[in-house]
Specification:
With 106 residues, this protein is of the alpha+beta class. The protein has one domain: Frataxin/CyaY (Metal Transport, Frataxin, Chain A). Helices cover 33% and strands 30% of the residues. The protein is built from 2 helices and 6 strands. It has a 6-stranded antiparallel sheet with strand order 1-2-3-4-5-6, covered by helices on one side.
């Protein structure tokens, strides 16, 4: 994957995530910080930060339960440790942090 291909895939994923959070968590505060960083703050003050990491060609997620790295497998962004798909992982993380069940769809 070239740098430009990674950036296009990562940017598309970040936009899709922003849209998914807007639809599933309308009370959450979403903020784009610079190029390739999305911060979500829930009503209870909990935060999730999602950013693209160009050097590793990954999307990184920082949540209260830890840090997660997602690499594109040609079809989906998957956790480098357990293979969980990005939207499924963020649904679980956001549900835990917000205290509200949440399912994020691409």
């Amino acid at each position: 994957m070239t740098d430009s291909e990674f950036e296009a895939l990562a940017d598309s994923a970040l936009v899709a995530l922003e849209n998914a959070f807007e639809a599933s968590a309308p009370d959450a505060a979403l903020e784009t910080k610079g190029s390739g960083v999305l911060e979500i703050e829930f009503e209870n003050g909990a935060k999730i930060v999602i950013n693209r990491h160009a050097a590793a060609r990954e999307i990184w997620v920082a949540a209260s339960s830890g840090g997660f790295h997602f690499r594109h497998d040609g079809a989906l962004w998957r956790d480098t440790r357990d293979g969980t798909e990005l939207f499924a992982a963020l649904s679980r993380l956001a549900s835990a942090q917000s205290g509200t069940p949440m399912v994020l769809h691409p």
